[in-house]
Design a protein that fits this description.
- It is a single chain.
- This protein has 74 residues and is mainly alpha-helical.
- It has four helices and no strands.
- Helix 1 packs across helix 3 and helix 1 packs across helix 4.
- The longest helix is centred in the first third of the chain and has 20 residues.
Length: 74
């Protein structure tokens, strides 16, 4: 189990958030509902989706390395 209050727990939580928002950007109904705002509190979802789509190679490598770290080293 990963503790949310540890550094690796925060990294996993951030990666899951970015990956989820990037996936939701591909769904048309959710894209117009959740990711339409670009400012404010709801803008965080939009910004995470942009990070997930533009840096998808870096996010995928980070997810893979974090998974290997959690499975084999922790």
């Amino acid at each position: 189990m990963t503790n949310v209050y540890s550094f690796d727990g925060i990294v996993v939580l951030g990666l899951l958030f970015v990956c989820t928002c990037a996936y939701l950007k591909k769904v048309p109904r959710l894209n117009s509902w959740l990711l339409s705002e670009k400012k404010g509190v709801w803008g965080v979802f939009y910004k995470a989706a942009v990070i997930g789509t533009r840096l998808h190679h870096a996010v995928a490598i980070t997810c893979l390395s974090m998974a290997l770290y959690l499975v084999f080293l922790k």
